[in-house]
Amino acid sequence: MTAERPLALVTGVGRTTGIGAGIALRLADAGWDLAFTYWHPYDERMAWGAEPGATEEIDRELAGRGAATVAVEADLADPEAATRIFDAAERLGPVTALVMCHCESVDSGLLDTTVESFDRHFAVNARATWLLVREYGRRFRGAHGTGRIISLTSDHTVHNLPYGASKGALDRITLAATHEFAHLGITANVVNPGPVDTGWMSDEVRDACLDATPLGRLGTPQDTAHLVEFLCSPQGGWINGQLLKSNGGMA
Fold this sequence. Notes:
The protein is an alpha/beta fold and 251 residues long. Helix content is 41%, strand content 15%. The protein contains eight helices and seven strands, in the order E-H-E-H-H-E-H-E-H-E-H-E-H-H-E. It has helices at residues 19-29, 40-44, 54-64, 81-89, 115-139, 161-180, 203-212, 221-232; strands spanning 7-11, 33-38, 69-73, 95-100, 147-152, 186-192, 243-245. The chain has a seven-stranded parallel beta sheet, with helices on both faces. The longest helix has 25 residues, at 115-139. The protein is globular and about 45 Å long. The termini are far apart.
């Protein structure tokens, strides 16, 4: 990493069409180096399936934008993952921005959620967020006011109980850093990107989201990436401790 390019660590960058990849590419364009995590076994058991060669393609695109990169395979259900991720990322230098896009998301409701699924959602979405934030706070040595923590969230819980509940915990964990890391000059914000179709929507869900969005379109990874880029910039440094909705006005 050069002195001119700060380092962002972005989690959950498993597919070229995902929000995580969109954020990583936008930050590379804005002058950041990138460490990013992926976990293909998650994609393999989801309806969209794994994307062969995605990690290599994302890495090539980042390098083409001038970024130094390191890709880290990590199962965030593992309590030791956060330490290993930061160890790998710091081969490029100190982490200035931590952007968390990782998730476990399996649809189920109050009656059909299993204990195993509930626990895994909280391990990945809540516990891993805490452990990553904790590791970042322990290691941060940047100038006061330069540190950034950003998490992606969701407010959907109906028939999506473990995902929505664990994302609610993620919100509180992230926003706690606003005050607990005040002495380090780190800002902490949560972004709700609204309905972004990265391959998971059925036709029925897509139509319902379009009907509920005043702008008449779905969100894109680039919509979220532009907001994250701003929050990571010096100009975004006064926004702190917020849960921001970037959802086109969806009701």
